[in-house]
């Protein structure tokens, strides 16, 4: 053949030798590279630097901001505030460049109403109510935005593959198309994702592998606290947490959320009640002060209750057994209620000592010192075990005005200006605070 069947040009065909890859006799033909290979030192970094979104708490989780060409998947339960957060990000980004917000779940008018309520109306923020991938690409060609928000990926579909919107085939095809668009044009893309009843991201697991960043948006419907937790991040830490408060006027970042988790925050020492203890937990790499409360009620009850809120329901009964057996405190015939303050969820073993001392304080009806913070994991033998990041935890406690701390023996404590008490067992601590 002397004529190309595609472009109809004569004499344009070249003969090449097939490159054998081995295995089954299959062969592939080498093609022309799209871009030449360069030395790694010659690769420019400007196109890979993160740019702040204007929402500080989200930037903390992203590792400084959005990288051009990055695809970010934000997943969360219905009504947790995903669309509100991304509309705030879109409004902040529109102050610097053009932004396209595509909604497949709501009309443009509904998005405009939310933007009016949250103060997110901007001249460079464009809205499009589309659920077809090809139409979205047409909007991108016409507007040339620097940021694309798609709400949500499960409502989008493409005519190139079969299947209903939200299905495995359609979700994968749409994500592949948007990812290719982002990499080709250096366009940052934010995707909203649904979750299953088990809390996992809806759709095929390959969806999380295709995107660059996976964030989980968490929150209790009975609390205004919201947390964005990094699960995967190719451009920064994957264990960072951002804290937000959902209000009528929108969503606001909380740079110092410890006050939400302390019932005594901003109050005097005389307001501290028996049955409370303060600890410092690490959520990702972020230290957060948390208050644990306990109530011991009744005596000689044949089948006493053990109610747990905000704590590990399988670990609290074990700690109660340790307190009774190793601490010599009678609890088997009394009802015990334990909870956290502010809707916080604590599963870290470093809070074991706080739970135990809160129960001891409630049983003895004697309050712990208001300026005391306790850290440590309890073993079944009643020994106090070391936890990681003690210096960072105590530095956060000292910043909020706590002056005394009980830590496990041998803990690496930096210069915090606090009065540090080391202990090796629960019985030793109970004897000191009697």
From TrEMBL:
ATP binds at residues 76-83. GO terms for molecular function: ATP binding; ATP-dependent DNA damage sensor activity; damaged DNA binding; hydrolase activity; zinc ion binding. DNA-dependent ATPase involved in processing of recombination intermediates, plays a role in repairing DNA breaks. Stimulates the branch migration of RecA-mediated strand transfer reactions, allowing the 3' invading strand to extend heteroduplex DNA faster. Binds ssDNA in the presence of ADP but not other nucleotides, has ATPase activity that is stimulated by ssDNA and various branched DNA structures, but inhibited by SSB. Does not have RecA's homology-searching function. Plays a role in repairing double-strand DNA breaks, probably involving stabilizing or processing branched DNA or blocked replication forks. Pfam families: AAA_25, ChlI. Gene3D superfamilies: 3.30.230.10, P-loop containing nucleotide triphosphate hydrolases. Keywords: ATP-binding, DNA damage, DNA repair, DNA-binding, Hydrolase, Metal-binding, Nucleotide-binding, Stress response, Zinc, Zinc-finger. The gene is radA. This is DNA repair protein RadA. Residues 335-434 are annotated as: Lon-protease-like. The middle region has homology to RecA with ATPase motifs including the RadA KNRFG motif, while the C-terminus is homologous to Lon protease. Belongs to the RecA family. RadA subfamily. One of its GO terms (cellular component) is cytosol. It comes from Pseudonocardia alni (Amycolata alni). GO terms for biological process: recombinational repair.
């Amino acid at each position: 053949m002397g004529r190309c069947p595609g472009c109809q040009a004569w004499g344009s065909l070249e003969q090449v030798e097939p490159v054998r890859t081995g295995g089954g006799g299959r062969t592939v033909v080498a093609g022309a590279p799209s871009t030449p290979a360069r030395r790694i030192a010659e690769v420019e970094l400007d196109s890979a630097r993160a740019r702040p979104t204007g929402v500080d708490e989200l930037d903390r989780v992203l590792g400084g901001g959005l990288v051009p060409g990055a695809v970010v998947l934000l997943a969360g339960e219905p009504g947790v505030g995903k669309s509100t957060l991304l509309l705030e990000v879109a409004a902040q980004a529109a102050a610097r460049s053009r932004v396209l917000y595509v909604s497949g779940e709501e009309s443009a008018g509904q998005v405009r109403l939310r933007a009016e309520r949250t103060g997110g109306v901007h001249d460079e923020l464009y809205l499009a109510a589309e659920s077809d991938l090809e139409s979205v690409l047409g909007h991108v060609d016409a507007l040339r935005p620097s940021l694309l928000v798609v709400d949500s990926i499960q409502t989008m579909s493409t005519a190139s593959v079969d299947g209903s919107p939200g299905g495995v085939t359609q979700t994968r095809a749409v994500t592949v198309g948007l990812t290719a668009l982002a990499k080709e044009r250096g366009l940052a893309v934010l995707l909203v994702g649904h979750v299953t009843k088990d809390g996992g991201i809806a759709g095929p697991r390959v969806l999380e592998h295709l995107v660059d960043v996976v964030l989980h948006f968490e929150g209790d419907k009975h609390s205004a606290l919201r947390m964005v937790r990094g699960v995967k991040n190719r451009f920064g830490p994957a264990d960072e947490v951002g804290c937000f408060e959902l209000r009528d006027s929108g969503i606001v970042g909380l740079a110092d959320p410890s006050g939400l988790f302390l019932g005594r925050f901003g109050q005097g020492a005389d307001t501290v009640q028996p049955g409370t203890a303060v600890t410092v937990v690490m959520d990702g790499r972020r230290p957060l002060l948390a208050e644990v409360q306990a109530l011991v009620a009744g005596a000689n009850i044949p089948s006493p209750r053990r109610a747990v809120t905000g704590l590990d329901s399988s670990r609290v009964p074990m700690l109660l057994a340790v307190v009774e057996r190793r601490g010599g405190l009678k609890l088997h015939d009394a009802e015990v209620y334990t909870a956290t303050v502010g809707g916080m969820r604590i599963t870290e073993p470093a809070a074991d000592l706080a739970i135990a001392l809160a129960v001891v304080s409630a049983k003895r009806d004697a309050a712990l010192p208001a300026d005391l913070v306790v850290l440590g994991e309890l073993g079944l033998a009643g020994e106090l075990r070391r936890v990681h990041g003690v210096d960072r935890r105590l530095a956060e406690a000292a910043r909020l005005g706590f002056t005394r701390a009980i830590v496990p023996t041998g803990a690496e404590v930096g210069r915090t200006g606090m009065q540090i008490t080391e202990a090796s067992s629960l019985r030793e601590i109970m004897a000191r605070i009697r």
